[in-house]
Structure of Dihydroxyacetone kinase:
Amino acid sequence: MKTKAFFNDPTHIVDHMCKSLAQQNPTLRFDATNKVLYRPTNHTKGNKVSIISGGGSGHEPAHAGYVGEGMLDAAVCGKVFASPNFDQIISAFDHVATPRGILVIVKNYTGDKLNFGLASETYQAQTGIPTHIVTVADDVSVPYSRGKLVGRRGLAGAVLIHKVSGAAAARGLDLADVAKVAQHVSDNMATIGCSLDYANLPGGVDQPSIPANTLELGMGIHNEPGAQRISPQPTVEQLVSNMLKLLLTEDDPEHGFLKFQGIPQSKAQLVLMVNNLGGLSVLELQAIANVVLESLRDQYNIRPIRIYVNTYLTALDAPGFNITLANLTPELFNSDIDLLSLLDEPVKSNTWTSCQPLDEEIAAQRTPENEERSDSPKLKDEIKCDKGVFTAILQNILTQVTADEPKLTEYDTLMGDGDCGTTLLAGAQAAFAVSEEDDNLSNLAKGLMKVASSVRSGMGGTSGALYGIFLNSFVSAVQKNYTEIKEVNIKLFAKSATQALETLKGYTNARENSRTLMDALIPFINELSAAVFDDKESAANALQRAHKAAETGAESTKWIKSSFGRSTYVGASEGDDNPTKGIPDPGACGIVSISTGIQSVFKVAN
């Protein structure tokens, strides 16, 4: 199916949309280079937490339509249905960061999580400004058993998170409290969607339609398959009844995500949102909303305390809708913050439909669109270190990875897309290039940040984001721990690496026995920590022990069935004829190459 459209260029249409929003609201600015719509903020005198969201375009009015006083401070617009990249997101941080910190709201999609996560960790490490990410995962159509690793998708409920967190920030709450509000509402919210057909992408190719007299229950907002196809098409009353059952059956073992903790559903303070996915008429949407309200009343004795019916977060022109329920019952929230009052606070944004205009308009200060990143805050600590040792580590890593690259490429060709070796080599080359610049490696914090930035840019893709998140978190931890340890030694590195690993775990569910780089990285760091803090080993002995642990972990992946990445579809442990059986994971082997380079710099005591 392909419908006619006025725009066939998926890039220009995003530019025009953002420019239009900026011209409708004189307090907003549009960074056209990075596709960021934002409210200008003073870096040093800002008196509130900044709220940033974003993602692929095609979900308008989310997220750009919610930039304004009382909601978002910046929205980062990727290409249609594609996550914005690191540089775009960092530019948004630069435009709106304040010393109070930044709350980042992302929907639970891998590209968004990794790119926003990498930007958050980088910015925090580089500036010392605290950041916190809340991931919205409100889709109840993805059952527990199928979504236990990647989690549930983020849908229209994200807009309610924008609203309550924006109001909390506007009240002057600190980052911890704003994040607590956002996380609580996210954890107590559920959404189910359906559509009669797929969305049409600007400039996209024709694609099959959902058959006549059929609808898809649980379709995602990027044309992802739903939970089930229903044919013949049920009445709206039957459909809504089935959707509410998925939302409100608390003891459903696969879909019971919305909890009431013993409070009768009829006594709970429930907020209802009925969201147009883009292709419904106002007449049809309002009629559906009334069916939802009648079904809640007749089947559950529920009368929502707030009702929102409009186009809030779309899948372009998909002919479908979402039902979202958020449980704002005060007894479930361990705080004196009134969540409902946050939802009721007026805002100044272009598209939040239930707000009341304020009497006074913010006097915005214009910021040059080409503002350099060099004007933003920089590293706060000067940590002197041995430039020779730093250089030797980078040199040895590069030498080892260069030697191992053909083997890593061969392994990845059998189970992936064959780029693991070349990507890791590009990262090692980029890291070593830092040593060729004067004085970069005599300051540990500056040198590590340069290495992290170079590796991120040199590698790219998912692996670049993973390494980037780890390295940037490592930089933050080194700066923090140095104030306690007051010496550049193996304790500083072991403690910081442990903390960086915990940060990385927040962005991926991969662990040991997942057939990923984590199978080598986790044992390396755990053994390093044990050797340093439990057994008081020297740096050389501790690194040798950690290296051997990484080797053992990588070797174990030969017989592990993959649960992450492209190799998931190969299945290394299935069938005697499988070409990947007995082949270690190339990502884990890459960690071994790096650990070989590091530990070879230090002589082991006899």
